[in-house]
Amino acid sequence: MEIVTNSEQETRDFAKKFADKLSGGMILCLYGELGAGKTTFVKGLAEGLGVKTNVTSPTFTLMNIYKIQNTKSKIKKLVHIDTYRLKNEQELIQIGAEDYAGAAENITVIEWPEKIANFLKNKKAVKIYLGHASDTVRNIKVES
Ligand SMILES: Nc1ncnc2c1ncn2[C@@H]1O[C@H](COP(=O)(O)OP(=O)(O)OP(=O)(O)O)[C@@H](O)[C@H]1O
Ligand SMILES: [Mg+2]
User: Could you identify the atom of ligand 1 that is nearest to the CA of residue 137?
Assistant: First the structure.
């Protein structure tokens, strides 16, 4: 699936709808350069999943965990990982990521997944590519 968005809001809206297709245990890898819209996508996803708090970039925290307050959903948490400032994969293990990422009741999204190839090795993930077309235009490709 491939779409073009023309604003931050359109990317959020796309991700919000995309959230309906997800089931517990899924890992989404978000590829794209700085400012491609990865965090924007996660904000929309969070909204779609029923996260009530504001999603902020886990650039310094590495991993943020949001509770899903939707009684109808079996998904309990949104796990948001950003490896941009990660020094090594061990650091991710140290903060307990292995207990959250890919767990059956969670949805996990990872920015800069290329930095944690080992961590992801035996995990199944959906790859999503975000590309800059211009200041306001982004190409979003979801690998089937
Ligand atoms: N069509 C669009 N979709 C998403 N963001 C857009 C779009 N057009 C412009 N933008 C802008 O691009 C920026 C995307 O920032 P965002 O933090 O989501 O990127 P990122 O990929 O997470 O970057 P980083 O690698 O630094 O974490 C925002 O400032 C947003 O307003
Ligand atoms: Mg980001």
Answer: 1
What is the predicted pLDDT for the residue at 92? Answer: 95
Contact (Cβ atoms closer than 8 angstroms) between residue 12 and residue 111: no
Using the atom order of ligand 1, give the atom closest to the CA of residue 33.
Answer: 25
CATH at 127? 3.40.50.300
pTM of the predicted structure, to 2 decimals: 0.97
Alpha helix (H) residue ranges in 59-144? 89-94, 97-100, 117-120
Ligand 2 centroid distance, CA of 132 (Å): 14
Q: Which domain holds residue 37?
A: 2-142
Block means of pLDDT (10 residues each) for the chain, length 144 residues?
Answer: 98 98 97 98 97 94 93 90 95 94 96 96 96 97 92
35 lines ligand 1 (CB under 6 A): yes
User: Residue 81: which of 132, 124, 30 has the closest Cα?
Assistant: 30
How many structural domains is the chain composed of?
1
2-5 and 63-67 beta bridge pairing: unpaired
Q: Give the number of whichever ligand sits closest to the CA of residue 30.
A: 1
> How far is ligand 1, taken at its centre, from the CA of residue 107, in Å?
21
Residue 72: its pLDDT value, please? 77
Give me the pLDDT at residue 71, please. Answer: 74
